[in-house]
Amino acid sequence: MKLGARIFKTGIAIVLALFVAEILHLPSPVFAGIAAIFAVQPTIYRSYLSIIEQVQANLIGAILAVAIVLLFGNHVIFVGLAAIIAITIILKLKIENTIGLSLVTMISIMEAPGENFIQFAIIRFSTIMLGVFSSFIVNLIFLPPKYETKLFSRVSNVTEDMLKWIRLSTRHATENHLLKKDMEKIKERLIKIDQIYLHFKEERSYFKMNHIAKNRKLVIYRQMISTLRRAFEILKRLHRFENDIHQLPEEILQLIQGQLDGLMSYHEQLLLKFVGKVKADIEFDSVHNVCAQRNELLKVFIKRMREYDLQEEIQSFHFMHLLSSILEYNEHLEHLEKLIASFQSYHVEENEVLVEDDDD
Q1: Total structural domains in the chain?
Q2: Signal peptide position in this chain (predicted)?
């Protein structure tokens, strides 16, 4: 099991909230610790949004709690009624992520009405908000997330695994059940990559030049993910139409294999180029081979369609599906190369990407 930065941040936020609550001699400092747990966020930007939303939601919970207790008392029925009203209002405001802590605030205030109830409610609300602000401070200062490093590492790892399966599939060397199982895992990993991309996108740059470079990097990473999905589409079609594809003539099979080998080599070299492991001005030999093989594959396809036989209808239909996926993958790779070349030409100082191992 790998302990991530968010786990450590949660622990530090709880300690900070409890420590400050004890220094201020606040009653029931445990509520500050509970609030800190709810308020920890993966990015600084989300933490900032969380502060605004938590203040709104906890004010709603506190005001409702005070109003219900003063008007009707704190019978369990009225506690439930207040909870329903609070949830309804919060959902209307579209800040549903704050429902949990808002209800904690409301119930903690309604639990013990007394002579100094208003003062008690203010202190309890302040205790909970102390936990929220403690989490924000921890997010701001401690262990800033390296989402770019994590994003590239995951893209690189998934690309490597996916291309291995495509190479095996074109050579009819895969175990069907193992490939199917791994494809499900790859689909889940692609979803995680999308989530990390969103976190990276939410990170704020504080200088204009850094902001421009960051935006261009976002475009590159978006294209990387899109290209990766095109490769996954090829893998799915190779798996789905495996029997029909391997009944194609040997000439076509060799062309498909050669075309995909060239594209996959091209893909790997582009990732290396992006992290500076390949010279920026180098021309890839695989590109010329890919273009030649693509033209040859198109000629064979056109020839095959002219000699179309109704008995081969399904086989030709599946071949057309695969061919369209290959051409689309090719176009995405060419666009990715243009983006990387442009970025490395205009942002020499900002084009360094730190690469480290990242467990999926």
Answers
A1: 2
A2: none
